[in-house]
Structures are given as C-alpha cells and as structure tokens.
Design brief:
Blueprint (H helix, E strand, L loop, with lengths): L1 E2 L11 H6 L5 E6 L2 E8 L5 E7 L5 E3 L19 E6 L2 E7 L6 E4 L6 E2 L10 E9 L4 E9 L7 E9 L12 E2 L7 E2 L3 E2 L5 E7 L10 E7 L5 E9 L5 E6 L5 E5 L6 E4 L2 E2 L19 E3 L5 E5 L5 E5 L6 E3 L6 E9 L15 E8 L2 E9 L4 E6 L15 E6 L5 E7 L6 E2 L8 E5 L13 H7 L4 E6 L8 H4 L9 H15 L8 E6 L1 H12 L5 E5 L5 H4 L12 H4 L7 H7 L12 E6 L7 H11 L6 E6 L9 H19 L14
Parallel strand pairs: 1-33, 34-35, 34-36, 36-37, 37-38, 38-39
Antiparallel strand pairs: 2-3, 3-4, 4-5, 6-7, 7-8, 8-9, 10-11, 11-12, 12-13, 14-16, 15-16, 16-17, 17-18, 19-20, 20-21, 21-22, 23-24, 24-25, 25-26, 27-28, 28-29, 29-30, 31-32, 32-35
Length: about 675
C-alpha cells in the first residue's frame, strides 16, 4: 500500500474504458424462443444495434452500421422494434434513427422501408411498433409534424401496412385514433382481441403528474370504437397498462401516493413501494402478465428488484441474485400473443435488465417454474480488476426543515494507494437529470474513473426524484432551482462537517436538468470550488417559450410555476440572469445538435460571463445531441472534467491532458 495524495492515484480505468462501457441493453423482446434487445455501440458513432440471442446462446448484432435502432418520438424515444417468427424465420420491424422511418427486416435481405418521408418540420416518427400479422399491419404511435416549430405536432395511434404500400402514400397509413390528446402510448390489445388500452395525457401535465387510461372496443378490420377513459386523471399518474390472461385490465397507478398495481380498479399488492415510474420513454414496462396469471414486476423503494406477483394472494417473491437495480424493460414468454397465437412451450420465462454496484447492466432471465435467475445476454465482464471499483454507501441526510435526502456516497477507493494521514478527499456532488428521475445504484465506470484516482462522488436523489413516492416527487413542484440546489448543498456540507470530504475541495456536476442544478448551485451558493455543467437548461424564460421540444415545453409550469402568473420567478432563478454571481471556475459541455437543451442557452450564458475574469472552458461537440453517445466525445468530456478538478483542487492525476481555462 503506497501513500500518495488524493487525486494522484494511478488508475487502469481511463476515459476510453469508461466511454466504451457507457450505456446498457434496452428494449427487450421475444422473437419466437429467442431473446432480442437493443444495445449501444459508442465506438461506432454511438449507434444502437439490434442484438439477437440464438437458441444455442450465441449473441450476434443483427444490423450492421449504419443502421441505428432508435426512435425520436417525444425526442427521448420509445420502444423501437418488434418481431415475430413467420414461416420459421424472424420478421422484424424497426425504427431507423437517421430518417425515423419504420423498416421491415428479414435475415438475409436488406431492410425495406414501410413508411414515407415527410418534408414538414421533424417529419413522421414512430414508436412502440406491434406486429398485427392477422391484419397485415404494424400498430404504432405516430408523431407527425405539421409545421416547422417544435410544438407543431400531433400524435395518434396508427396502423402501417406490412406490404410497403405506405412508402409513397401517407394516406395508406390508417389512423386508429384522433388527435384529441397531445400524447399517447402504444395500445395493448386484450387476449381475445376485442379491446385496446392505452395511456393519454395533455399539456401542461407530464405523465408522472396525471394520465388517462383509455379503452376502446376493436371493431371489424381493426377499427377502434367508442374510446372511453376508465381510470386516471389530472392528479393520478398511470405509468403502464396491460391485460391479464382472462381479460381484466391491469395498471400501475399512484392514486395512493405510490405507483401500485391494480386489476379492474382493485389493488393487488398495496405497499409503500413503486411498481411504476416516470414515463420518459414510450414503452417503458414495469410489469408483464404471464399466461399462468402471475405477473412479473419491477418494484422497490429507491432501488428496484425483479419479482413475481401472485395477484390472487398478493404474494410477491423476488428473484435471487446480485442485482440491486432493474431497468423498466421486461419481456415475457408465456404472455398471450396479440395475434391470438398460443404461447410456445417453455412459458414462464421472464427477461429483464439488471445491474448492481459491482456489475453493469446485463440481460437476466428468470424461470418462474424453477425460480432460477441467470444472466443470458450482455454479461458483465470486468474490464479491470474489480478491486478498483468504488464501494458505495446508501445514505439518508437531513436537509432544510428536517427533510430526508437520499444519496449514494462513493468514497475514494484504490487497492494499492491511500492518502496521507490527516488529508481529506475532494468530492464531486452529482445531480441527476430529469429532474423527475433518479440515480440508480449500479456500477458506473465514469464514477470509478474519479474514485479510483482519489476523488469522491456523491449522487444525490434530491427532493423531486422518483422511487420514493409522490410526496417526495412533489417537493420540487414550483421549487426547481431551490429544493434541488438546497439538497445537493446539504449533502456536500454534511460530508464536510462529518470529516468525510474536504470543505475547500467540493465540486458540483450534472447533465440536462442536473446541469441546471449545477449551474444554479454556482449562482445561488458558495458551497463549491468549481462545477461541471453538461447540456444544461440555463434560461427558464427562453426554454419555456419555444427553445425546447414539445414534450417538455410546459414542464416548467409545474416545476417553476405558471409563466403568465409568476414571470419574475423565471428570471429570479435562471443562471443566465445571474451570471455575475459565478465566481469559481467551471466547465460547460454541450452537443451542437441538442434540440432539448439547445446550444443557444450556453452561448447566452457565456456572453454574460465574458469579461468577468472567471476561469472557464466551453466544449461544444458536432454531431452530439442530448446525451453524449460517441466514444470520442465521452473521452474528451471526462478528461476535461478531471483536468478542471486537478487545476482547482491542486491535484496531480497522471496522464491527463490539461484543459485550457480562459477568463
């Protein structure tokens, strides 16, 4: 064991390694007996490929570059593919990111488009495709731009012919619903094919504020008849809906303050836990009914587990294994096909995506007959000795007014180095995005990049985060830029007061809504010696009046307050209006193709900083949108962030390029 200063420890976890392991499997599904999913390829321009796990356990990337399986519906996307076995071979439809068209693919042939292009605004976009082979169609969510503005858009449920007849004829796309609701999710069809259920909501609500559960009868030739709202409303969020094998309606509602499961309105397992979450992407799935009547569920308070619920008794049994967090994507073999095809042999298989503080996200299979869970895809493989991984602590801190603040604390950790006696480590407070989201307790090599060098990280699930009930989420209503900033500062100062962190070497960082919190923290507090601000919101008035996409265009009505009623609050809290209060160095990172938090906000903020003699750096990346996906971008960003801390905290990390700070 060698003794050397914090921040100077040599680490095998470099930025390239962290970038190569960014992202995780997503959007699981069965194609016959095979499990398929999407997976990121950071070193291939950040595209997402479709992975097929054959019956013999071999994995293969189905679509080569440049195919990119990713939807842009509501900009955050949704489930981008669906598949079935036809005449013994897979038939798959998927959304290609570059043109947002829906394609048909059969192994051995090139993908063929099924949908037309539109020259209007953002064009035609698709999500949550579902094969209806009985009708020769794909049922989807259609997002159609009607003008050049980001809010010139309509969304409906639509049926796309599988024969390609809509490629040059928009009228060949059959609309299943009208556009009375601003937002809709894909329909779930009852086992007997007689009804469809979907979620809908309207501005200014976000889906975690209030949604409606709509049911329609399915008439001749697949038409929807008499849509009616059967649950939900402005103050009740329904996160997901589906059908039980006997045709009863299942849904996750937070009517009690927690997203719990209901069947025809009756609670199945009432607990102060979440069986749902924030619907940031269309097609997120926290539960899946099995043909046996059991229900696979992702549930928990804070972290999540994979379990099997017996709806008749309320008994819930969790899968054994090392996983402490499961993503909201589930697929089940043994649920009834929407084409009325009986489930194949081997029903009772559940696949999910799970991770832990020692393992990255991997595809997990649970056999409900045996209770056995195992990794079947994208298995975690330690790229370095796991002795270099951080050892997180689950903490609850006390904030203003005595409120609880949940956080994960990652102390500096190295198997061969320790700091001199009496030296306290620097710490970086991480604010997650959303802000209606949460930081999962999983292995993240970006965190290990810092902790293995002697820099601590504290992820704060500030008030407003998901996973702790609606009351905890509602702490942020009209308090964005206040509660999140206070909670992050409270955690940072508590770590310093207890002797865990160096009070003079605290930093704050975050991306998207976390970038807002980081910037607001630098203008509203004197807690931090520097900050890293990543694709942020900086100007509330601009962002709330046309500078973002439609999905979040009225999000601030609840986060800050109605703009028409409290315009002064928008200026009072915006970092761009208080750039003169920033006195410490900062790093600003931005994707130039970002339509959610556009570069104009960064440029406006920098113009207010100009001439104030505050050391800073601005790195803008061509070809990157909201969330960096290219390996070279992530490498540059991580190294720049470490260099900022090195310069401000007086650290000496080996082999890190120096970031030029200007004034």
């Amino acid at each position: 064991m060698q003794t050397s200063a914090y921040g100077s420890w040599p680490s095998p976890i470099d930025a390239a390694l962290a970038a190569a392991h960014d992202g995780h499997p997503e959007w699981l599904g069965f194609v016959g007996d095979e499990v398929w999913w999407t997976e990121p390829r950071p070193t291939e321009g950040g595209r997402r490929t479709l992975v097929r796990r054959r019956a013999d356990g071999q994995e293969e990337s189905v679509l080569p570059a440049p195919w990119n399986v990713r939807s842009r519906v509501i900009e955050y996307g949704g489930h981008p593919w669906a598949g079935a076995v036809v005449a013994g071979e897979p038939l798959v439809v998927f959304v290609h990111f570059a043109d947002q068209r829906l394609y048909r693919y059969e192994p051995g042939s090139e993908p063929r488009p099924l949908t037309p292009l539109s020259p209007v605004g953002g064009g035609l976009r698709w999500a949550e495709p579902q094969l209806r082979l009985d009708l020769g169609e794909v049922w989807c969510v259609l997002e159609e731009f009607t003008g050049d503005g980001p809010t010139d858009v309509r969304r409906v449920l639509a049926a796309v012919p599988l024969d390609g007849s809509a490629v040059r004829d928009r009228d060949a796309v059959r609309e299943l619903t009208d556009d009375r609701h601003r937002f809709v999710t894909g329909p779930r069809v009852s086992p007997d094919g007689s009804r469809a259920a979907w979620l809908a909501w309207d501005h200014p609500r976000m889906p975690w504020d209030g949604t409606e559960l709509v049911v329609a009868d399915i008439g001749a030739h697949g038409t929807f008849v008499e849509p009616r709202t059967v649950a939900g409303g402005p103050q009740e969020s329904i996160a997901q809906a589906d059908w039980s094998p006997d045709g009863r309606l299942l849904y996750a509602s937070d009517r009690t303050g927690w997203w719990n499961l209901y069947r025809d309105g009756e609670p199945l397992c009432p607990r102060e836990e979440e069986f749902g979450g924030a619907l940031w992407k269309l097609g997120h799935r926290w539960f899946a009914p099995l043909d046996s009547g059991l229900i696979a569920v992702v549930h928990g308070s804070g972290s999540t587990a994979l379990g099997i619920l017996d709806p008749e008794t309320g008994e819930l049994v969790d899968a054994a294994g090392p996983w402490t967090e499961f993503a909201p994507t589930l697929a089940v073999q043994g649920e009834r096909s929407e084409m009325g095809v009986p489930p194949p042999e081997g029903w009772g298989r559940v696949v999910a995506v799970g991770a832990s503080p020692r393992t990255a996200y991997e595809v997990v299979e649970l056999d409900t007959r045996t209770g056995r869970a195992r990794v079947i895809g994208a298995p975690h493989d330690d790229p370095v000795d796991p002795a270099y991984y951080p050892e997180p602590l689950i903490r609850t801190f006390t904030g203003p007014d005595g409120r609880d603040i949940h956080a994960h604390v990652y102390p500096p950790h190295h198997p061969g180095h320790r700091a001199p006696g009496g030296e306290l480590p620097p710490y970086v407070v991480w604010a997650h995005g959303g802000p209606t989201g949460h930081a999962p307790l999983v292995l993240d090599l970006s965190i290990a990049y810092f902790t293995s060098r002697g820099i601590g990280v504290a992820e704060v699930n500030y008030g407003g985060s998901t996973g702790y009930g609606r009351e905890y989420r509602n702490r942020l209503r009209e308090q964005w830029g206040v509660v999140d900033v206070e909670d992050c500062a409270a955690v940072a100062l508590a770590l310093a007061d207890e002797g865990t962190a160096d009070r003079d070497r605290l930093a704050v960082r975050g991306g998207s809504a976390g970038g807002w919190t980081a910037a607001a923290s630098l203008t509203a507090t004197d807690v931090y010696a520097c900050g890293t601000i990543v694709y942020p919101i900086l100007d509330l008035a601009g962002w709330g009046t046309g500078e973002t996409h439609d999905f979040e265009s009225q999000y601030l009505e609840s986060l800050v307050g109605p703009l028409a009623e409290v315009p002064g609050r928008y200026a009072e809290r915006s970092p761009v209006e208080h750039a003169d209060r920033v006195t410490v160095p900062f790093l600003l990172l931005q994707g130039l193709d970002d339509v959610i938090c556009p570069p104009a906000q960064c440029e406006r903020f920098l113009s207010r900083i100009a001439g104030r003699q505050v050391p800073h750096a601005y790195l803008a990346f061509e070809g990157e949108g909201h969330g960096f996906r290219r390996a070279e971008t992530m490498v540059r960003a991580l190294e720049a962030e470490l260099s900022l801390y090195a310069q401000v905290f007086g650290l000496n990390p080996p082999g890190v390029p120096t970031l030029e700070l200007i004034k």
